Every structure is written in structure tokens, then in C-alpha cells.
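Q: Sequence in, structure out?
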Amino acid sequence: MNSKVKKNNYYLTFIRSQKCVVTDSYYNVVAHHVRLNAGAGMGQKPDDYLTLPIHANKHYELHNTGEKSFWAKNKIDPFCSMLIYICEFVAKHEILELSELNLSELKTNHDVLGKIRNISETVHQFCILNKLI
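A: Exactly. Output:
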């Protein structure tokens, strides 16, 4: 993983304002940093763009269960979900036209993670230029 982790409290605030991916509730939502295939180990957080909104109790459950098991049990693809949220952020702030993202080319979780990282670089620069971070 890149030693320079991208931090963006503005994006995390956006994630926390969304419904929990498990309970579909806005109540007590936290931003969970997805570590699957992110190159972050124990005690290390990946980029703030690799996050999902999750209820605090479910977040606790996730850490006790383990990510892979938790996502499988709840039938959630964290990679596709993260891509949806970052695309919603891009559309909300008119950073890019969604048609420019070429999402139809994505076939694997590796492709999706690469696309999220690519989009997050653009989002990060947008937020810096607009003094949001």
C-alpha cells in the first residue's frame, strides 16, 4: 500500500450521512474502512475513500466476525458498494460525468478496487482545490 494514506474528513462526513449498508438506517452510522485487498493490516487504515457506512453495532460485529465472513453473511459486495458511494459523491459534487468513468469495463474486485483508487485520486484533488480538506 502507498505509505501516504489519503485522508478526507469531508468524504467521511458524506459516508456517515448515508444509510447503513446492512440495516438501511441512518441512525448511529459510522464509516468503516474496508481492509479487504486494500493492503492495510491490523492497526492500519486504508484511504478514507475505501469506506462504507455501517451502524455502530454492526461495525462492532464486523470486527468480531472478520470482514470476509461478515460481508458474505450479509450478502454485501463491499467493492461494488464502495464504488457506488464514491460515484454518488462524484455526481453530487459534479466532479466528473459518470459516463467518463467507464464502469462497464469492470470485471473483477481487483478492477473495481483499481477504479475506486483512480476515482479517489480525482476526488482528492477536487477536495484540495476547493479547500474541503
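The beta strands are 29-33, 51-55.
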